[in-house]
Amino acid sequence: MDFHLAGKTVLITAGSMGIGRAAAEEFIKEGCKVAICSSNEKNLIKTVEEIKKSLNVEPVWAVCDINNLNDIENTVKVVNNNYGEIDILVNNCGGPKPGYFEELNDKDWQDALDQVLLSAVRFTRLVIPGMINKGWGRIVNITSISVKQPIDNLILSNSLRSAVTAFAKTISNEYGKHNITVNNVAPGYTLTSRLYELAVARAKERQESHEHVLASMAADVPMKRLARPDEVASLIVYLASEQAGYITGTTIPVDGGLIKSTY
């Protein structure tokens, strides 16, 4: 299917690994001009080289600590200077520190606020004017199933990703008249480095192997397996397409049926 995205400029944050990288590859296949950022320069360079080798396209990249406003502003400038104004923004980030309520202090909460919510707010603030001028734009936030079904030991993620959901719903109402859509993709258990880290942490807590924890996660899913990053990326690209132009302000899980609620 032609999603009518050829030539569109895409910025994907935390785009060097996992779901972000998978999304970058899918957008490149659609003929988009893709830029990625990450705080890890080594990972960025490796990813860019691998994408160039496999797809014969070299994404623009920038080192960016998404907790830092100056880095965010610089990243958007890099994209604008190379590709022009951003048409599609994918707000993605690593998960904040795990822990239960009494284990976390004010700094943990502030770091999570900067990482998860304020990064999305800041990137969005910088790209919205250009989208309004064009009369077209797509913003897709990568959240988590925790916005619909909180996950034990992840109170920071549960709280701040839910805030992103409310933020997205609010601005979708404000900017829909400019043909700008704002949606959230809520992955379930997906085979990424973040899931591996959580599995290791749970294994330590339960005094069992991380392989057993991963197998238990898969067993909890009705489809009895973990998601691949490209399965989440496919929805991200669809939500950026012309065909999804009347979908906005919504949160769509990609979870293999893990969420138990009916809505």
Task: Give structural notes.
- With 263 residues, the protein is of the alpha/beta class.
- It has a single domain (9-188, 228-254), classed as NAD(P)-binding Rossmann-like Domain (Rossmann fold, 3-Layer(aba) Sandwich).
- It has helices at residues 18-29, 41-55, 69-83, 106-134, 155-175, 193-206, 210-220, 229-239, and strands spanning 9-12, 33-38, 60-63, 88-91, 137-142, 180-187, 251-254.
- The chain has a 7-stranded parallel sheet with strand order 3-2-1-4-5-6-7, with helices on both faces.
- Helix 3 (69-83) packs parallel to helix 4 and helix 6 (193-206) crosses helix 7.
- The two termini are 28 Å apart.
- 43% of the residues are buried.
- The model has no long low-confidence stretch (mean pLDDT 95).
Give a nutshell description of this structure.
The chain has helices at residues 18-29, 41-55, 69-83, 106-134, 155-175, 193-206, 210-220, 229-239; strands at 9-12, 33-38, 60-63, 88-91, 137-142, 180-187, 251-254.
What share of residues is helical? 40-55%
Q: Kindly report the average pLDDT value.
A: 95
The 3D shape can be described as globular
Main sheet record: 7 strands, parallel
Order of helices and strands: EHEHEHEHEHEHHHE
CATH class: Alpha Beta
Based on DSSP secondary structure assignment, what is the total number of beta strands?
7
**What is the level-2 CATH architecture name?**
3-Layer(aba) Sandwich
Total number of helices: 8
Unreliable residue stretches: none
CATH topology: Rossmann fold
List the domain count as a whole number.
Answer: 1
Structural class: alpha/beta
Q: Beta-sheet strand percentage?
A: 5-15%
